[in-house]
Every structure is written in structure tokens, then in C-alpha cells.
């Protein structure tokens, strides 16, 4: 086999309930992930032995413009770590080149880095013929980061623990989303730190029954009303202008508006494609975000496409 390409979706959090900080520094979460049709593609090819570039080399292109510079292309990249972890666990592999074709915003609260790591696990497993069982891939993914298991599964799922223990959530129909992307990213760790400062006495997180019912019924209006994100206040605190972005989308008819994960991407749920186009046009015309992208959910997780 000479090359494997894996397509992987971004996520938006429909509910992100955050408990108090744990002793290990992480937070217990109830995190409802929803995979949307905004995809990165990861291609792995065997590297040249003795090329002097180490066992893993990385390159990048895509629709992320100047933000490509924010993606580390050294050993600290989560995709590079994924390849090394799989090689170590299976004893297989060899030098490998990883090419990231990015559409998911960098440091945008849509788990783009986690998506690339999940795709790399699947791509290298296929390239090397290691046939790692799914449960084991999920375990390796969780070792890489709390958001890495979900893109392997896709659809809609609730994550508990650090967010890495997944159970599927039934989701009917198709939901239409608009995402307002920011010029500069936010670090997940700093948003959680700000959350701890603002909310030292956070209660235990609980799954929202109304949200689950809205998803099962395919009811966009009810889903819009049920969207919630405990990290939103912390994201506003670090980036006050995000409030204006949400207001702009709501005034343009969005059924729900929320910061995605730790932000700064803002997500808007629309009734249908026409409404989504109106919300996107209002956001693009407002000058309050760098640009918008439209997507639908949910969609499947990592898929080998070539
Ligand atoms: O797991 P991951 O490395 O993606 O998490 C990035 C950062 O987000 C962590 O270092 C931590 O600061 C924060 N985090 C958290 N609680 C979680 C998940 C992430 O505090 N459940």
C-alpha cells in the first residue's frame, strides 16, 4: 500500500456541562458531541528511510489561510503523536509522511487537532495493516486527548469522564449549521482555567433531557432552545466580542446560538438551508467574524476515502 487518505469531521458541542476541577487538573464533563460536514483529510504515505527527517514528517495545506502557521509541524503535533503511539503499541510501522488538508479551523473549539489525530490513527492502521480492534483504537485515542475518540465514532454521542467515555445519542433528520470563524484561536487550557476562576463551585454535570428529546425527535426549534455551554462565560471573558457575534446570528433568525466548545468559533442552528444562508449573510456582512462556513449534522466519523 502506498498511500491512505482518511476524511474526518469537525464537531460542535450541543451541551457542554463542566464540573469542578479534578485532582488531575481535568474536569468531569457531560459533553454532547455532534459531527458536522466540515472535514479535514489526512493522507499518510511511507517515508523515505534514512531521509534524516525522523520517523514522522508533516505537511499541511487547506482552507485555513494564515492560520496554517498556528499548526506545529514538529513532534508536538497531535497527528505525529498518534502515528508514534500506534507504532509503539503495535511494533509495526516505519517512517511515515502525514499530509493534513485542513478545513476545520485551528484552535477554534471544533476539535480540528483531535480530528487529525483520530484520522492519523485510522490511516496508519490501514497503511501498516495492523488491524487494531476498534475498542483498542478508542483507548489509544483517549490517551492522545479527551476529544480524540469522538471523531472515530462520529454521529452524535455523549462523552463523560474527561469527555472521552462515549455513548451514542440518537439523532433524527438533518440539522443545518452556520459557523462564524474568528481571526485568532483560543487555547482550550486557558478557557478551562478562566472557567475555574469564574466558577470555583461548579455543580456535578448532568445530561439535559430536553436536548436528548429534541435530537431524537429531529426538532430543530427545541434543539436550538436546549443548546448550552458552560465554557461560554469563560470564552466571553477572554474574548468579549463573541457576545456580539452570537447576537448578530440570533437577530438574523438563528434558532440557537452558542460558542463551540472552548471557542472562539460560534455555532448557529438554522431552520433550513435558506435560513442558514440568511444567518451566514448577516454574519459575513457584520464584520464581526473572519468568515462563515455552513455545514450539516450529524455525519459519520473517520472514513477511509482512498
Ligand atoms: O484532553 P486534552 O489534552 O485535549 O485537553 C486539553 C486541555 O483542556 C487540558 O490540558 C485541560 O486544561 C483542559 N480540559 C479539562 N477537562 C477536560 C478536558 C480538557 O480541563 N475534561
Automatic annotation (TrEMBL):
This is 4-diphosphocytidyl-2-C-methyl-D-erythritol kinase. InterPro entries: GHMP_kinase_C_dom, GHMP_kinase_C_sf, GHMP_kinase_N_dom, IspE, Ribosomal_Su5_D2-typ_SF, Ribsml_uS5_D2-typ_fold_subgr. It comes from Marinactinospora thermotolerans DSM 45154. The gene is ispE. Gene3D superfamilies: 3.30.230.10, GHMP kinase, C-terminal domain. Catalyzes the phosphorylation of the position 2 hydroxy group of 4-diphosphocytidyl-2C-methyl-D-erythritol. Belongs to the GHMP kinase family. IspE subfamily. Its EC number is 2.7.1.148. One of its GO terms (biological process) is isopentenyl diphosphate biosynthetic process, methylerythritol 4-phosphate pathway.
Amino acid at each position: 500500500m502506498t498511500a491512505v487518505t482518511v476524511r474526518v469531521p469537525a464537531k460542535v458541542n450541543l451541551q457542554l456541562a463542566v464540573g469542578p476541577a479534578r485532582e488531575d487538573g481535568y474536569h468531569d464533563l457531560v459533553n454532547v458531541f455532534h459531527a458536522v460536514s466540515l472535514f479535514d483529510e489526512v493522507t499518510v504515505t511511507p517515508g523515505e528511510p534514512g531521509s534524516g527527517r525522523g520517523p514522522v514528517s508533516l505537511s499541511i495545506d487547506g482552507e485555513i489561510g494564515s492560520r496554517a502557521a498556528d499548526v506545529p509541524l514538529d513532534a508536538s503535533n497531535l497527528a505525529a503523536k498518534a502515528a508514534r503511539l500506534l507504532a509503539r503499541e503495535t511494533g509495526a510501522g516505519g517512517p511515515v509522511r502525514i499530509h493534513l488538508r485542513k478545513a476545520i479551523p485551528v484552535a477554534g473549539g471544533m476539535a480540528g487537532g483531535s480530528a487529525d489525530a483520530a484520522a492519523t490513527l485510522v490511516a496508519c492502521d490501514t497503511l501498516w495493516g495492523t488491524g487494531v480492534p476498534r475498542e483498542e483504537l478508542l483507548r489509544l485515542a483517549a490517551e492522545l486527548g479527551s476529544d480524540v475518540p469522538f471523531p472515530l465514532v462520529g454521529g452524535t454521542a455523549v462523552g463523560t469522564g474527561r469527555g472521552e467515555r462515549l455513548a451514542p445519542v440518537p439523532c433524527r433528520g438533518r440539522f443545518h449549521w452556520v459557523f462564524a470563524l474568528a481571526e485568532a484561536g483560543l487555547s482550550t487550557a486557558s478557557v478551562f482555567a478562566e472557567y475555574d476562576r469564574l466558577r470555583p463551585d461548579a455543580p456535578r454535570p448532568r445530561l439535559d433531557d430536553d436536548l436528548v428529546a429534541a435530537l431524537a425527535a429531529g426538532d430543530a426549534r427545541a434543539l436550538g432552545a436546549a443548546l448550552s455551554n458552560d465554557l461560554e462565560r469563560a470564552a466571553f471573558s477572554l474574548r468579549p466580542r463573541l457576545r456580539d457575534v452570537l447576537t448578530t446570528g440570533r437577530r438574523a433568525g438563528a434558532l440557537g446560538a452558542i460558542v463551540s466548545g472552548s471557542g472562539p468559533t460560534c455555532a448557529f442552528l438554522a431552520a433550513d438551508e435558506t435560513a442558514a444562508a440568511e444567518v451566514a449573510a448577516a454574519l459575513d456582512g457584520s464584520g464581526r467574524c473572519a468568515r462563515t462556513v455552513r455545514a450539516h449534522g450529524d455525519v459519520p466519523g473517520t472514513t477511509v476515502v482512498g
